[in-house]
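Annotated sample (chain length 290).
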Amino acid sequence: MKINEAFKKYSLVPSRYEKIGSVSVVDTANGRYVFKAKKLNLDIFDYLRSRNFDYIPPIVNDPLEDDYQITEYINDLEIPQEQKILDLVLLVALLHSKTTHYKEVDINDYEQIYEDLDNNIAYLYGYYTDIITIIESKVYMSPSEYLLARNISKIYQTIDECKERLENWHKLIGEKRKQRNVVLHNNLKLDHFIRNDNSYLISWDKAKIGSPVFDLYKLYKNHALDFDFTDILREYENHYPLMQDERELFFILISLPGIIEFNDTEFKQCQKISQEIDIIYKTERLTKTA
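Output written by the structure step:
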């Protein structure tokens, strides 16, 4: 549906709109609104309302009838980024606290997680072995190849530590039959958090039910090099402590090295490798001090 038609249904007349990513910010005589051409996940939103989690911009349209969203526009205050991410993680801890429930799980569910991670670790080891074998067979290495060769032992060490953590996690879950689940925003980053008189989370398109670990994992992957996550994790756990097996799984997920592909210009290739190595060292410090 076109924006004009959608707003007319609710007696709103757009005077101007601006496309920002997947949404449009629309000016009307009644104020500013955000239009998104995607249907709300009603199951998630109804559950959030039932748990008194009200930190979502007010919805203007009828989500039962419409295949789009119209919400009130909330101005984002200019605050230091370090404070903003602490405010964000505090709100996430509240989201998880208000929506916690326990699900009976079959041991095979945990075994599937174990096997998937074990296979991922084996793949990473084989992937980097193949790459370094090719690089070391060359008479002259490019700068990016040399950079990777210099740091390959650290990558192998990280993969080995992930394997050890995985085995430890496997022992921790043992005969565990209940999993702690929450509503996951599932796309956490500063762009999806607004701070005004109140705090708000936006962009709930990927929301689902799952372990709280995965919200922290997404946040870390989006901002690993931007902030010191020791304080961020501490703030979260001050309000919503992770269980021992959840913490171990979180550390495994954030520690797994990414796949470095040689498909870019030499300058950008060096940047990618440097960033991946920086993340490895930064993650190691977090997992050993948190």
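Annotation: The first strand starts at residue 14 and ends at 20.
Annotation: Residues 3-73 form a domain with the Phosphorylase Kinase; domain 1 fold (CATH 3.30.200.20).
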